[in-house]
Write a structure and sequence with these properties.
alpha+beta, five-stranded antiparallel sheet, 13 strands, 233 residues, globular, six-stranded antiparallel sheet
Length: 233
């Protein structure tokens, strides 16, 4: 049975909420497969699409959709202030990149493993680590690797600088992303099957070990973060 506060959410007395605790969002109303996570304080919009066990929501900062279990509605409170996207000049972002890199390196030092949908740590997926690293300095990226690739400014591999993103996948779509560190190295969170089951450093070369070579063979290109994402909804 739902509490009064949970019933109010489903009755849409307001539609904007904030997370009181870390929140899992799922990719279907069954709530069996993680889509993404929301850290404490994140804003979300509850839609009128309710199923038997879950409600569809959109995270305000990156427009990402997902389903929240009725069991987790108690982790939400009405937002007292609506989310407003911050703007950054490209020069400001460049100055913040050392802190972005430091975030990923600190995350690697903690015990971690790859988690599909992970964005709040210690367990991340590839794009979740990138999003978390940039938001640690106030810069928002879209959620998924292919969205991040479309969002950044495309650059050549010869133009790569520390703090740029490198993308991997198929000719049709980016499915993996890492953060360039310099000297041909990048840091990323990779899976157990093809990668290192967590955060590690690999190189953009055929001369690396089996994991580095595998990703290098899937290299699509690179991009530079020159702005912070602004919600479209």
């Amino acid at each position: 049975m739902l509490s009064n506060s949970e019933s109010q959410i489903l009755n849409l007395t307001v539609d904007k909420y904030q997370c009181l605790a870390e929140l899992n969002l799922y990719d279907s109303p069954a709530c069996t497969r993680l889509a993404t996570q929301a850290a404490v304080g994140r804003h979300l919009r509850v839609t009128s699409n309710h199923q038997d066990t879950a409600v569809e929501v959109y995270l305000c900062e990156d427009d990402y959709p997902g389903w929240v279990s009725f069991l987790d509605l108690g982790l939400l409170q009405p937002a007292t202030v609506h989310y407003q996207a911050a703007t950054f000049a490209e020069t400001e972002i460049k100055k913040l990149l050392p802190k972005v890199i430091a975030f990923t390196q600190k995350a690697m030092e903690q015990s971690n493993e790859y988690l599909w949908g992970g964005t709040v740590g210690p367990n991340y997926d590839c794009s979740g680590l990138m999003q978390a690293a940039f938001v640690s300095v106030g810069i928002w990226l879209p959620r998924d690797a292919y969205q991040q690739e479309a969002f950044v400014q495309a650059i050549t591999l010869e133009e790569l600088q520390p703090g740029d993103l490198v993308f991997f996948g198929t000719p049709e779509k980016a499915t993996h992303v890492g953060l360039y560190l310099g000297d041909g190295a990048y840091i990323h969170s990779s899976g157990a099957t093809q990668g290192r089951n967590g955060i590690g450093i690999d190189i953009l070369s055929e001369q690396g070990d089996a994991v580095s070579r595998s990703y290098y063979q899937q290299l699509r290109g690179a991009g530079r973060v020159v702005k912070s994402y602004e919600p479209q909804r």
